[in-house]
Amino acid sequence: MNLPYCSRLLCLAFACYFLVHILTAALLNCLAPVAIRFAGKATPRHAARMLFALRLFPFAFSLLLVAGFCVPSYLRLEPEQATEPVGLICIAAAFFGLWTCGAAIVRGVRALVESRRYILRCTRAGHAICIEGDVEPICVLDEAVPEIAIAGLIRPTLIVSSRVIRVLSNEQLSAALQHERAHWTAHDNLKRLVVRVTPRILPCVNGFVRIERAWSKFTEWAADDRAVAGDTARSVVLAATLVRVARISSKRHPLPLMSSLLAGGEDFSTRVNRLLCVPRQNEKPSLGITAFAVCAIAASAAVVTTALAYPAALQIVHSLLESLIQ
User: Domain segments of the chain: what residues?
Assistant: First the structure.
């Protein structure tokens, strides 16, 4: 297929993105078990941050290479011919690259729409009340389905069903609300949106399930730690709250941009036992997490330095692009 200059640039950009992304994602999947064990040695807050960064790494790295090397080498070294034939492999790779990016945007928009509709339905059907000791009101739903969660990105909405309020004591309800506010302080709903709009390996193949599940687990643990603030009595109360809510809850598929008290149900027993038995860890990042951050910064600096100090690298990249476009 013959394509003009600008169309060839777009085709090569998406093709390069797709090939680099799928290779980087495959490598990350191979290293996922090691990375998760490594993260488990740190505090939940720092472990969640590390796994969140790893989830975004394939996309960010691919975008950096395309924007920092592929596009500049094409613009600098490619002659502006009217048209030039482009091979089927390059076109297929560009198609999948465009498809994965488009599907990610659609997932993000859909998540925003679903979240907005749910918040509007709750605010219209429910009523606001103030709990003693809390400044912000909560939205109470007169529904049989038990619910306690925080929804929204810009202005948080604490949503609690009347059934949960009847079951929990004031102390337990306060612990649950502190857990949900911890999610808001950590911007977890916004991070969930970022994960939604970050492309997968293929539109119908996630490929990052282990990383995302581990991130979700450590996110819940971090919210637990922030809610109890190192207080053993609060920790016991929150554990009892989790058990009591779990007894009356029914399995529901949570909205993508909502942090629920019982999120990550497959890790429920470990989470409760941790609140009852495991001492709080030091909030200082471990040596391993610090080393990971330093290595990530050093790798990014090395890429930028290579692009600035060695313009000949663009020539090498352009040769690779010529091979891809054939």
Answer: 2-325
Amino acid of residue 319: S
Per-residue pLDDT reduced to its tens digit, 301-320: 666 666 555 566 666 776 77
What distance in Å separates the CA atoms of residue 178 and residue 165, rounded to the nearest whole number? 15
What b/e string do you get for 285-309 counting C-beta neighbours within 10 Å, with b at 16 or more?
A: bbeebeebeeeeeeeeeebeeebee
Phi, psi of 278 (to 5 degrees): -85, 130
| Cα 195 from Cα 209, distance rounded (Å) | 11
Confidence (pLDDT) at 157:
84
d(CA 228, CA 238): 8
- Kindly report the number of other CB atoms within 10 A of residue 230's CB atom: 12
Angle between helices 44-65 and 287-309 (to 10 degrees): 10
Quote the CA–CA distance of 134 and 183 in Å, as a whole number.
16
CA-CA-CA-CA torsion sign (76, 81, 82, 84): negative
Q: Cβ atoms within 10 A of the Cβ of 251, count?
A: 6
CA distances, 206 to each of 55, 71, 89, 235, 293 (Å): 11, 27, 23, 35, 25
Tokens of 187: 């911007």
How is residue 227 written in tokens?
Answer: 């809610």
Decide: 211 and 24 in contact? Cβ < 8 Å.
no
The helix (H) or strand (E) run that includes residue 128 is strand 127-129
Tens digit of each residue's pLDDT (9 = 90 or more) over 74-104: 887 777 776 777 788 888 999 999 999 999 9
DSSP-derived pairing of the beta strands 258-260 and 138-141? unpaired
Cα distances from 203 to residues 196, 199, 315, in angstroms, run 12, 8, 33
- The answer to whether 14 and 94 have CB atoms below 8 angstroms apart is yes
